Amino acid sequence: MLRLTWVQPEDLLGHELRQARLDGREPAAVEARWRAAGGPDAPERAGASASRASRYLRLLAEDLLDELADLPSRFAEDEPTELERIKSRCPDWPAPAGTGSPPSRDRGPAAAGRAVPRAPSGRLPAALEAAWLGRAIGCLLGKPVEKLPLDGIRALAKATGNWPLTGYFTARGVPDDLLRAHPWNRRSAATSLAENIDGMPEDDDLDYPLLNLLLLQRHGRDFTTDDVARLWLEELPPGRTFTAERLAHRNLLAGIEPPHTARHRNPFREWIGALIRADMHGWSNPGDPAAAAGQAHRDAVLTHTANGVYAAMFTAAAIATAATGDHDVHACLRAGRAVVPARSRLARALDHAVRLARDTSDFDEVVDRLHARYAADHHWVHAIPNTALIAAALTHADGDFSGSVCRAVSGGWDTDSNGAAAGSIAGLLAGTPDALPDRWRAPLKNRLATTVADFDGTGFDTLAHLTHLEATRP
After folding, report:
1. Closest to 334 in 3D by CA, of 269, 399, 270, 415
2. Which of 223, 346, 420, 462 is the most buried (most CB within 10 A)?
3. Residue 415: what are its φ and ψ, rounded to 5°?
4. For the domain 94-139+201-471, what is the CATH superfamily, name and number?
5. Could you tell me the pTM of the whole model?
């Protein structure tokens, strides 16, 4: 029996109950009705439960999803989704490029709010290639252990002498009983363990930057959310989408228009999907974090709201600042933090994670404390804990490439997406592909697999050239 993941109403309801508690709604009465009817919890790690619910439970779940959506949130004022309201709640929102002084390398809190000039084009092509490679490397490192619990990731790495992480995961030497307890990710093991990597395999963490490259080629930096939606309908196979992106696809086909596509029966609207689409918005606005954040916002609101949108804006602004080559990782993170509403849950999580990473020498302890704070209440794909972990990894590694991707993946949760985001920023900061260790680059063979348009088999040098054209387009 085909059980399509991430769309079954009886499974969505459990996720929406959790999301309601997180975003300041009171779902107790709705939850009581669901439990009284025999409604199940949401699958903890899979996208769909094993068996179909009764017709009654399915119809009830649809009704309750709509009822939950109508509940008021006590966080509504502090966590808006509309861009102008977001800006009004960001006291250090960066000025447009060219209207102020670049941020200094000091770590003063005001530095993130000043504008930065666009990066000189001479450095940018090599830096963009390093960023594409860094994104791929971090993603590939995290692919085989995606969905595994933290203790499983640590045990598998320790079994081969690869802890703390210094290279790709391998199955060689791992005891059979450990693999039975913590099996590699089913979709990824055949192409992402050290012994069988042969180029960069397909992954949505690379597909979305490719889609957004296509978006910019067709529409330029003034694209609209409707342009994103049309591109997806034309170029993105629904089976290659997950969570919020799959539900937005479904909503578009049902005749629901953006930005309502992000809200209609979509409990994943604060998960990590918009963040993994943000890189191109930063790469195409070097030195202009305000423009990068605005661009990321227009993309993100197709599928996400509030903190899910802020995570994408944070990432885009940090990347735009890193692209200049003039700022350390801490200034980049401050630039990202400046576009996140000050009283939002993501702002608090970022501040906590950066402070924890700055003040704690052992990164395993940083990870343990982040998990103690967020794991019980948040799904492992939720944007808040994952974005916090990315910021912690980059802070603790001081922007070093290997240290950043290894820390991001070793922290668990959405391992491939976290590794990809950290690798993109750290790769930009490294500035050139040659600055990335050969043990990471060589297995990729300058080749990327994808179903997006005509990009299958494209080299990272070519992708950097195409991205540079968009970054420097008038």
Report:
1. 399
2. 420
3. -60, -45
4. ADP-ribosylation/Crystallin J1 (1.10.4080.10)
5. 0.95
